């Protein structure tokens, strides 16, 4: 743990999810592989599409509609629909099938492995502070076993821009009815979490498990392990 500013107590905590409370990378690798295999096995229209071709479809969508970059759920559904339509499926049917597959994909995507000590820490923090989750992703917190710790959950999409933009931070502050300097944001990303929190006035505990170089925008405190929040806040 390394402090960059004089520590002052906080009244509430916001948490990033992906790669902060769990390692999201292996989950997404498995989910993406499942999706490619499912689309190859279930639909003639996408039987020839490999991971690279699906990535091309997504890039084309984002180039045509840049606003989709702020909504990972909608962009995924649109990607699936576009792939099915490219194979010759009618748009109405392709949209319905994309919605059905997306529901199945979300179960795969939400199979994250949360360490027992993380559950214990969140439980202890939730007894003392109001906790709010703010995420650029689309994890199903109920499926992942995390929903019970958070009073509110805000996701990018449906008109809400991703961190580091103000939208999710502002929603959390409105929920908490606190000034930003009384709220600690905990997250791993030097841009979306650290820069976003500092830009919008929140305190920041930057989780740097990968040993990244110190960014230009300094957090209040840098953590090498999430467990260090316990001695700091409890």
The order of strands across the largest sheet is 1-7-6-5-2-3-4
Order of helices and strands: EEHHHHHEHEHEHEEH
Our Rg estimate from Cα atoms comes to 19 Å
Sheet-strand content, in percent, reads 5-15%
**How does the major sheet shape up?**
7 strands, mixed
pLDDT averaged over residues: 97
Helix- and strand-based class? alpha/beta
Count up the helices.
9
Helix content: 40-55%
The residue ranges in which pLDDT falls below 50 over 5 or more consecutive positions are none
- Terminal CA distance: 15 Å
How many β-strand runs? 7
What gross morphology would you assign?
Answer: elongated
Description:
The protein is of the alpha/beta class and 234 residues long. 47% of the residues lie in helices and 12% in strands. The protein contains 9 helices and 7 strands; from the N terminus they run ββαααααβαβαβαββα. A 7-stranded mixed beta sheet has the order 1-7-6-5-2-3-4, with helices on one face. β3, α6 (141-144) and β4 form a beta-alpha-beta unit. α2 packs across α3 (72-86). The longest helix has 19 residues, at 24-42. The two termini are 15 Å apart. The mean pLDDT is 97.
Please give the structural blueprint.
Elements: E1 2-3, E2 12-15, H1 24-42, H2 51-64, H3 72-86, H4 91-109, H5 116-128, E3 131-135, H6 141-144, E4 152-155, H7 167-176, E5 183-187, H8 190-199, E6 203-207, E7 221-223, H9 229-233
Parallel strand pairs: 2-3, 2-5, 3-4, 5-6, 6-7
Antiparallel strand pairs: 1-7
Helix pairs in contact: 1-4, 2-3, 3-4
